[in-house]
Design brief:
By secondary structure, the chain is mainly α. It is about 65% helix and about 0% strand. It is elongated.
């Protein structure tokens, strides 16, 4: 699943003070997400919580949603450590389901709120792409590559497109009704999607 990105991430100064300020804001924003949720966050609230002025915030990020996207993406991407020591196809299915299950819990729904906000705010779209979507794609690529190399997936399979097919179908289902989608439903969606990518059996 991808979103159109026609803007770039703002460069961050490498000066120690600027780096420390940047990290301080991200930490405060992540904490606010846990405490008040996406809709409860504003630039003013981030400024008050972090002790960093609004003027300085706008030197680091173009919008509030850009701050939230980077903070949320960095925190959630830290957990993307998938095992690659079992059956390639089984690992692929299980790890994809694990990644997607995150969206069915309250903290995971921030993604859908961010996605909606960034879809009409091009300046922020680059942030959710770089800090949330891209890390997930990169984490899944080795799993697809192993399954492809093992002969379990169709020869010549385009891995980028395959990720869109498998991940996109499940995310779309979650977007429709995340409150009533169980883990077993996510697993079923992933398995049906993967089935269309399998190598033909002789």
């Amino acid at each position: 699943m991808r979103i159109a990105v026609n803007q770039e991430i703002w460069p961050v100064s490498t000066r120690p003070r600027s780096v420390a300020t940047h990290q301080k804001v991200l930490k405060s924003t992540a904490q606010l997400l846990r405490e008040v949720g996406f809709r409860g966050i504003s630039v003013e609230r981030i400024s008050e919580h972090s002790g960093v002025s609004s003027a300085t915030l706008y030197k680091h990020w173009p919008t509030k949603n850009a701050i939230v996207a980077e903070a949320f993406g960095r925190v959630t991407s830290e957990a993307l450590q998938f095992p690659v020591d079992g059956d390639p196809l089984t690992d692929l299915v299980n790890c994809t389901v694990e990644s997607l299950t995150f969206h069915s819990v309250q903290s995971g729904r921030v993604f859908f709120q961010l996605l909606a906000a960034c879809s009409v705010e091009p300046q922020s779209a680059a942030y959710i792409d770089q800090f949330y979507m891209s890390p997930r794609r990169e984490a899944l690529k080795p799993l697809f590559a192993r399954a492809l190399a093992s002969g379990q997936l169709a020869p010549g399979l385009n891995i980028e497109m395959a990720i869109d097919v498998v991940y996109g179908a499940a995310v779309f289902r979650l977007m429709r009704d995340a409150d009533n989608v169980a883990v077993v439903d996510i697993e079923e969606t992933v398995r049906w999607s993967v089935r269309g990518l399998l190598a033909e059996q002789p």
